[in-house]
Amino acid sequence: MNKPSFEQFLKESLEQTKEVSPKRDLWPGIERALVSHNEHAKKVSYWPKLTGVAACMVAGLLAWQVVIKQPQQNTMVDISAFFEQQKQSLLVQYEAQPALTSDWQAQLKELESAEQAVKSALQNDPENAALLKMLAQVYQQQLDLINKVHEPRWQQI
Amino acid sequence: MLIDANQALSHKVHKPKPIDELVLQVQQGSQRAFEQLYKKYEKRVYGLCLRLLASPEYAEDVTQEVFVQLWHKISQFQGQSQFSTWLHSVTSNIAISYLRKHKNWLQKVVSIEGCGMDEQASSMCEGLNGLDKLIVRLPERARLVFVLHAVEGYRHEEIANMLGMAVGSSKSQYHRARQLLQEWYDNE
């Protein structure tokens, strides 16, 4: 039997099927790689979402603190609450006790007007230190006035 | 009536899905369609890898790598060429890249060319036809150029670009491969 020429051999061989079967089944390895990649991708895509949600929650909490809660807890409100409590306690304490002067309530009204004026100014500039100091002084003057007109030592003189 | 009955029957017979539809399903994320695509092209991809890499172990690794990358890159296939042409191009590039990565330190330092299989190993290699058994014995550069040009139909300009060599080098490697193949064939 004559051996075909190299050219003939080459031509015929190149026309033959180019398929070759691997010795082992390669699909399980491919499938594992796809599954592990998908799981990795899920984990990777899960964290940005979680971080985003956490960031939104923190931002929301901060906004709530600043916009909703903060005005109730600002310095002016704190000062007002503290002095109002003190003032009401004194007024209750001295309720049955006669005052030394009859015009002390008019003086108190003036101080309360001053208090309202300072509070109005603080609405525009809530953390203004000078205004807050002024408000505290006005409150203190109110307390001093109430105390002075009701103190026993003044009544004994 | 008989024709209608035959037509109805033929619809019930399981027919392999046309490739375009399979590719579309894979692009939409169907792993089942991807497995069918794998079964259809596995032997062609492995055959190409084996000819390029001249190692059944490397060819198995690269075949798996090709299909893993295919799963992720299939969205890039826009249907401008035959799917098989595109897949062979992806396979060739991955195999060439694999060879570059797996050069040992001596080959990298002194630019020694990788050799092919020895005669005994190639004759033991299952599934290869007569020419394939000779191809896998070729030195690396001659083998790559011969497979890409003669088997896969790439032009020398394309091969030069893929392998990072001059067009003239691609042509000379091709002639070198042919001479070696003829010499071995004549001596068989």
Short description:
The complex is a heterodimer of chains A (157) and B (188). Chain A is built from six helices and no strands.
Into which percentage range does the β-strand content of chain B fall? under 5%
- Strand content range of chain A: under 5%
Number of domains of chain A: 2
Q: Helix proportion of residues of chain B, in percent?
A: over 70%
The end-to-end distance of chain B, rounded to whole angstroms, is 62 Å
The DSSP helix count of chain A reads: 6
Derived structural class of chain A? mainly alpha
The CATH superfamily of the largest domain in chain B turns out to be RNA polymerase sigma factor, region 2, helix turn helix motif
Total domain count of chain B: 2
How is the quaternary structure best described?
A: heterodimer
Would you tell me which CATH topology of the largest domain in chain B applies? Answer: Rna Polymerase Sigma Factor, Chain: A
Q: Given this structure, which CATH class of the largest domain in chain B is correct?
A: Mainly Alpha
Gyration radius of chain B, to the nearest Å? 20 Å
SSE ordering of chain B: HHHHHHHHHHH
- The total beta strand count of chain A reads 0
Largest sheet features of chain A: none
Q: Which shape of chain A, going by the Cα principal axes?
A: rod-shaped
Shape of chain B: globular
Largest interface, chains and sizes:
A-B, 21 and 34 residues
GO biological process, one term (chain B): DNA-templated transcription initiation
GO molecular function, one term (chain B): sigma factor activity
Organism (chain B): Pseudoalteromonas holothuriae
Family (chain B): Belongs to the sigma-70 factor family. ECF subfamily.
